[in-house]
């Protein structure tokens, strides 16, 4: 049960609020087989300093403290109450520690979690665990280092047969990663790295996840069929 307690001036709670910042109370579902009586939801405080430039919606992926652990969770409800007055503090709320840079969980998925929990008489957190079975998938993939040819090679660059094969590998692909270049040129990745160190290649950073391909256009005309094929 959440209770708004008045805070005397210069109290420990006032100091905590100064560090905690303003924000909004949310109810989050954690992927644990607990909280059946509460619908699997737990109250947390989402401070403005954690939000940053993120837009917080129902279904947002967040990280919250549960005991001594930090677990991924889903924003299930957002408290419509205004921010607490300066003289009050919801002392029982723990802060949200992180917001994942991902689209919110669709409403259809959240309804499915609720339905499955009711149908199988299971805690909602147990069902949510199946949706968040791999927490590392929520992390932003690190950037990939790739290489592209430079407009003009340095005059003092020492060329070897392996380096020539590396440069020749760009004939139809403008940017390649180190392993891709090494495989195409039949050499080791150290040859690629050494060539880049001496100015023979330019390093570029690529997103960790390749962009999604465009959606298929079902209205595009198909191939022209012969009379026999069209039968």
Describe it for me?
The chain folds into two domains: 5-138, PriA, 3(prime) DNA-binding domain (GIY-YIG endonuclease); 144-206, Orthogonal Bundle (Arc Repressor Mutant, subunit A), CATH 1.10.10. It has a six-stranded mixed beta sheet. It has helices at 12-20, 48-51, 107-119, 124-131, 161-168, 178-185, 189-197, 227-230, and strands at 5-6, 23-29, 41-47, 61-66, 69-78, 88-89, 94-95, 98-99, 144-149, 176-177, 201-206. It has eight helices and eleven strands. Residues 1-20 and 85-90 have low confidence and may be disordered. The chain is α+β, with helices and mostly antiparallel strands.
How are the secondary structure elements laid out?
Blueprint: E1 5-6, H1 12-20, E2 23-29, E3 41-47, H2 48-51, E4 61-66, E5 69-78, E6 88-89, E7 94-95, E8 98-99, H3 107-119, H4 124-131, E9 144-149, H5 161-168, E10 176-177, H6 178-185, H7 189-197, E11 201-206, H8 227-230
Parallel strand pairs: 3-7
Antiparallel strand pairs: 1-6, 2-3, 2-5, 4-5, 4-8, 9-10, 9-11
Please report the first level of CATH classification, the CATH class of the largest domain. Alpha Beta
Query: Could you say which overall geometry the principal axes of the C-alpha atoms support?
Result: extended
Binned, the helix content reads 25-40%
Terminal Cα span: 72 Å
Largest beta sheet: strand ordering: 7-3-2-5-4-8
The average pLDDT is 80
CATH architecture of the largest domain: 3-Layer(aba) Sandwich
Instruction: Tell me the CATH superfamily of the largest domain.
Output: PriA, 3(prime) DNA-binding domain
Radius of gyration: 27 Å
Count of helical stretches: 8
Strand count, sense and barrel status of the largest sheet are:
6 strands, mixed
Helices and strands, in order, run as EHEEHEEEEEHHEHEHHEH
Structural class: alpha+beta
